[in-house]
Amino acid sequence: MKFTPILSFVLLMLFGPVNALYAQQTAQLYLSGTGNDHTVNWDFFCTAGMNSGKWTKIAVPSNWELQGFGKYDYGFAKDSVRGKEQGLYKFSFKVPTGWKGKKINIVFEGVMTDAEVKINGRTAGPVHQGAFYVFRYDISRQLKYNQDNLLEVKVSKHSANKSVNEAERKADFWIFGGIFRPVYLEALPMQHIERLAVNAQASGQFNAELSTTGEADKLGVQLYGADGKKYGSELSNSIQKTGRASISGRFSSPLLWSSELPNLYTAVFTLYHKNKVVHTVSKKIGFRTIEVKPRDGVFVNGVKIKFKGVNRHAFRPASGRALSKTNSIEDVLLMKEMNMNAVRMSHYPPDGHFLDVCDSLGLYVMDELAGWHGHYDTPTGTKLVKEMLRHDVNHPSIIFWANGNEGGHNRDLDPVFAQEDIQKRSVVHPWEDFNGFDTQHYREYNYGIGNYRHGHSIVMPTEFLHGMFDGGHGASLDDYWNDMLLNPLSAGGFLWDFADQGVVRTDKNNIIDADGNRGADGIVGPFHEKEGSFFTIKEIWSPVFFERREMTAGFDGVFNLENRYHFTNLNTCRFDWKLLNLKTNEKITGNAKAPDVKPSEKGRLKISLPSNWINYDVLYITVTDLHGKELFTWSFPIILPVKEARRLTGDKAGTTVTLKETDSLFIAAANGLQLSFSKKTGVLREVRNTNGLIPFANGPVVQEGANNFSNITHRMEGEQLVIESAFDRKSAYNTLKWTISPSGVLKLTVKYFPSEYLSNFVGLNFSFPESQMKGVEYMGMGPNRVWKNRLKGNSFGIWKKEYNDTETGESWVYPEFKGYHSNMYWCKFITKAKSFTVATENEDVFLRLFSAAFKTDQWHNYEPLFPSGNISFMQGIPGIGTKTQRADRSGPMAMKNIFYDYEKDPARALDITLYFDFLLKD
């Protein structure tokens, strides 16, 4: 059989930077495809569920549910065909004649869950139990050359080992079946390196431990830099009679590996027998030192680290846990885009290519033995820990090992990690205070921060701010992160979790199913649609922090900065700025000299702006890192709402304002506009122009305050008509004033007091039928909606949004239309009838557009709250909770709005001024 292009590629990649002198490489021949983007069809028979009871074809690697077989199961032991659902696989293959005389292994990178393997009718070895681990069998004696060989694999979705099901199957995630990672043959010389483990320290000290098979007498290792050139001299040592060997030496001034500077070297290990090369193995390595100092912190290369991390499932909607390297790159790039520096493998070890990408792009990794709330028995777990470390031990990105999750810890396995890991990386028990780490999950802000601040362990919650729909993640992260920054015992933490686990249901017309709220936990959607929290996290976790700055007339162009990098000076970043007139798009751009600010220090950025800078609307500053990645673009509004409102509404011609009365209404008319107000309450009842009715009415309604406007009168102020209420401290302490100008522009001023000391909502509501809304165009922060505890991540500008009915985590057209939008200056409502504009003189007004569907849970933690009416102009909005915490227990930003009534002193009332233009020309 000829070598396939895949085999040739693998040989080339394994060959690395060395030349053809080293011919004795480990050769690979894929029997399956390499991932979900390249598969090979095998014969397949499913014993239960969809399309069962018949031989057909299936793509390998894959999860069979996504191929239309078996039964979907979201875990929690609810599968009705448990113990019956099996997949039978067959595949014929030929072995290259040149492989005669070599040791040939068949390697499975991942099979869910029990795998019984036969070659030409003979069992390859014991049934493998455990879904996420690379295992191999020596099949050298079972193969036939120049003939077809038959591979048969019987895969049981649920294990015959109860502890495997407890660890992997009864879990809060989708439970799939199948050969979901690649299958290949590897051919090794009879004299070969069986296993190797590397420890490359920041000092340049290099140690490796190896085991060998067959006659060999010497081992050497040569390092190569990213440029392919030799780095240092070859190290060598003799091999013990036991087949074990070690090799060590010191390299001068290596480029160190970290998440910020992921420098890698290629280590080429060469096995010699009588000065003849018999085998070579190539590994990517990184020089870095991890040190855990009890009651202090985690140090990488001598620097204390704050982990900005997220939990990540290996998942795609159309392929389940069958992934590709392209998928891994996509995931890591999105995490890096959010300025994350760490990822936890939840709740099982990942594909090897994901760790490769973390090595090359720079992410700290917590690699995890499977175990949700249950764990493996000790014999099974010991075997799987060894398989996991054999596969993963050399990745510089791995900083910790996790022994199970949330009670899924078999403590007998803890010593096995140390025995198998040359680097002796720390083992954590996620959710426990163990081994010097307090990793407790989902602590309420007050309890959690208090407990963390007064404890003695290193604080590193391996799950916090549990997302559900639009809650958690970015919501309250600012509070938690600020406290983590201040706490010297904090090592940061890991958000739950990265992506919504919405799966394509081949049994339900290919709908995307996240199993209700169980899988809707992501910062991004199933296909990586970016939710609002994505951008909030990006800003909060930016390694460049801008101190708040108001753009006043005396602005001198100086911004105060903080460098929140661990290793990088800000002088390696690029600082670009742009002044923009939002109405004309006139702009001026420039580049500021990057300041010399060392990690963890503060400094100043000086921008040389033109003398007329104050005539522009907004200043943007974009910071780009040394790799060319945008950290964030900050916006600093220059214009104030009062100036913009008067620009929009002033200098408009009109006609005389007239007024007529009915029994219940004041009806004002000007410039073709007719406005009706209640004579009893002063509330706007109807708006008409020459084209007919504009269904904007029934306001203002004070939310969480008394609607006690009374004693409504009218009068003329020059050419303007005024309709207003009278103030009474006891019974009519909230007041309104309507002013109708000859142009038809309507002005509303309301002074009001919230009825409660603590309020979810503060502001004014109006009615408008949702069915008539087509979209909006507004000036303010956008484009994403906000909550009181999730205000960061947006940019100031003019935004256009088409109406959508997106429910976060259930449908994925982002940004959502419905919800709260911050710092509104004006909004043009684009309707099916006639468009109109509302502007405000006030700063910090929230525009509310309708209501997302109300959702709750058994604990009433996640509840999106909206005021009455349909469109609101708010001065206080609620926070949003998480799956595990109510909003008011998630930190100061999520607390209710606090206002005093000052005994209804009108001088201390809240006030809001709005302008309405119902005569826009479409």
Low-confidence segments, given as residue ranges, are: 1-22
Relative strand content = 35-45%
What is the CATH architecture term of the largest domain?
Alpha-Beta Barrel
Q: What is the number of beta strands?
A: 62
- What structural class do the secondary elements suggest? mainly beta
Order of strands, main sheet, comes to 48-49-50-51-62-58-57-54-55
Name of the CATH superfamily of the largest domain: Glycosidases
CATH classification, class level of the largest domain? Alpha Beta
Characterize the overall form.
elongated
Q: Please give the alpha-carbon distance between the first and last residues.
A: 71 Å
Q: Helical stretch count?
A: 10
What CATH calls the topology of the largest domain is: TIM Barrel
CA radius of gyration is 33 Å
Q: What is the domain tally?
A: 5
InterPro entries: B-gal_small/dom_5, Bact_Beta-galactosidase, Beta-gal/glucu_dom_sf, Gal_mutarotase_sf_dom, Galactose-bd-like_sf, GH, GH-type_carb-bd, Glyco_hydro_2
GO biological process, one term: lactose catabolic process
GO cellular component, one term: beta-galactosidase complex
Subunit structure: Monomer.
Task: Explain what this protein looks like in three dimensions.
It is a single chain. The strands form 15 sheets. A nine-stranded antiparallel β-sheet has the order 48-49-50-51-62-58-57-54-55, covered by helices on one side. It contains ten helices and 62 strands. The protein folds into five domains: 31-188, Galactose-binding domain-like (Jelly Rolls), CATH 2.60.120.260; 290-525, Alpha-Beta Barrel (TIM Barrel), CATH 3.20.20.80; 544-637, Immunoglobulins (Immunoglobulin-like); 649-754, Beta-galactosidase, Chain A, domain 5 (Distorted Sandwich), CATH 2.70.98; 762-834 and 843-903, no CATH class. A hairpin with a 2-residue loop joins strand 48 (713-717) and strand 49 (720-724). Residues 1-22 have low confidence and may be disordered. Helix 3 packs across helix 4. The longest helix has 15 residues, at 378-392. It is elongated and about 110 Å long. Helices cover 11% and strands 36% of the residues. It has 922 residues and is mainly β. Belongs to the glycosyl hydrolase 2 family. Residues 296-509 form the Glycoside hydrolase family 2 catalytic domain.
